[in-house]
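re: ur question from the group chat, yeah i did fold both. here u go
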Amino acid sequence: MEKQIFTKAYTRDFSIIMEEAWYHALSRGLWDILKLRPPKEYPNFYFFNKGLIEVWENKSFIQKIMGVILKKNSDITFFNLLFKRYAILVKKLKDTNLKDSTYIGYLFEAISIFAIFWYGIRESGTKKELQNKFVKIRDTDIIFDYNDKIVRQRILKRFPKTKGLETVIFKDEFLSTIPKKDALKKRLNNFISIPGKYSKTTKLNSFVKKINIEIEVFKNTTNGLVKGTTTYPGIIIGKVRIIKRKDEIDQMKKGEVLISPMTTPDVFIAIKKASAIVTDEGGQLCHAAIISRELKIPCIVGTKNASETYKNGDLVEVNADKGIVKMITQKK
């Protein structure tokens, strides 16, 4: 078997339980819905880096997912049933009286359906009518952002002393007994998980060697210039505001250039203050792209490394006419 190649898909301030739900969706859940046998490879792995989760995707596995979803393109009855079931689950997940175990069960099922919608958006061959429906669901239900908050609230309700560490508690721990605080703290940095398969504090390179995979690492630029895809044109000069965590949103000041791995609905309050938007991830149908067109804010997405290239206070020029961001003055 060829060596599996993983690439960093995104970095998020999410709880590991949400990513366990995503792993379940990709490794088994969506395949059960499609009544197909899943591939034997790992779909992704998770790397905690400075308290944030980096999600590394198996490129071959993801292509297989998009391929099987594409084959369902013409089965409108299938998707209509899926839409109905998903709507029921979204409603159930808002019931605060649900037992934790029942809530987790609904969450994992809903995320499995959502994964089909997500990769239907990414698959360019998806019928436009279906793709538009998927995008609307993604941006209306905000299932990840909403339920990440609920997961954290439920964890803190059961284990109030874990505040600040609720993102590193696994599903089975949440439903039974959690590790000691010192063990949880160690997970905030250099902690890698393949849910149900592998969980250990280790360096990324050591992990790669141990399980015999390859990773594609995008090297940071040294000349202060990054390139991406324009989603709304315009040329702006402004100071940088990096937002990677939810608790950084309120730091955004009017007129700053918002730079983030990727925007989500939670970041909307910061986007409205931004003179321009730049993201590491995404394409023409990502959240940042759609919002930039609605608000007519110059925007460049898919730069790979803008959030690592610049720091808060750097003065940059965002040339969204050409899809280029360049450093003017670096903050000392």
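okk and heres the other one u asked abt
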Amino acid sequence: MPFPAARGFRVGGLLLAAVLAGPALPFPAIACTLWAAAGEAVEGGGALVAKNRDFRPDHRQEIALLRPRQGWAALVLRAVGGAAPGIKAGINERGLVILSATAGEVPAELRRSSGAEPGLLRRLLSGCGGIDEVLREIERFRRPVFYLLGDRRGVAAIEVAPDGGLAVERLASGTLHHANHYRWLMAEASLRPPSVSSRAREARIAGWLATEPGPFTAEDFLRWSRDRSNGPDRSLWRTGRNASAVRTLATWIARIPPRGDPELIVRIADPGEPERFCRIPVGESLWRTAGSAMPAGSLLCPPHLPPDADSASTRLTAPVDRPDRSLPAGGHPRGAGL
């Protein structure tokens, strides 16, 4: 497909930039780990897209329902309060997933001054029905951030450099992964080297994707997301070195089948609160929920459910009062109920 030529980008094996090199330094990473599988790499086909969200424990999180007047409804993971509030992950009624991760080599002040478009994830989730439509909007990606996308037909990763350079890796079948350092794009020499944590987490998830037998399931991704075996900062589920240190606060796993209702697996670990763990049928939840904000302890993600117990999963199984409509494979009619 055609891509904008105004800035450098990479598609598949083509890279129009130099690769960042340099030693890894042990500065703390405010970070996340992203990974995905698609096509023949997923049991039953479609896509699996996952994020372990790492940040300082200075805020709470909620699952929020976005119902714009025009466009697609979506479920999102939203940080409330703290140093970086806003949407951190989302899936819309067409089965498009958008996840983001910090570019840890870029200092915070440079990220803040990048001229990013406010509310970009919200607008992409409401306005785009799949990866192709997101990529047609790629000139809107200005902030140095890493993105992982998924839909019923594949997955994609996007890197955005501080100078506006872009890299896109798109797969219909196979696996992708990303931590918090540039893998494909050039970054300015004045930026920080990759953190030890980012390198270690990328190596762990890359190893599992390369060596564990596939095709993969959501349960495989959930098992990896719980990894604590490499210490407080180098495991996928980071526990932090002290009470105020960066640690993993949430897991977001989306299973997007070729047809039918996508499913979310969400684990939320807000500071000072019991962990929440739930399984959410996306289409059912979009029709069932009347409100717009669903705190972690709500119907969709009830409290006091230990994430490692089989009984912890909750599904929306009660009858859903919704119109008798003919739904497309991707979800509900555009604008219905919005």
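fwiw on the second one: The longest strand covers residues 247-256. The helical segments are 108-112, 120-127, 131-135, 196-211, 218-225, 282-288. idk if thats what u expected
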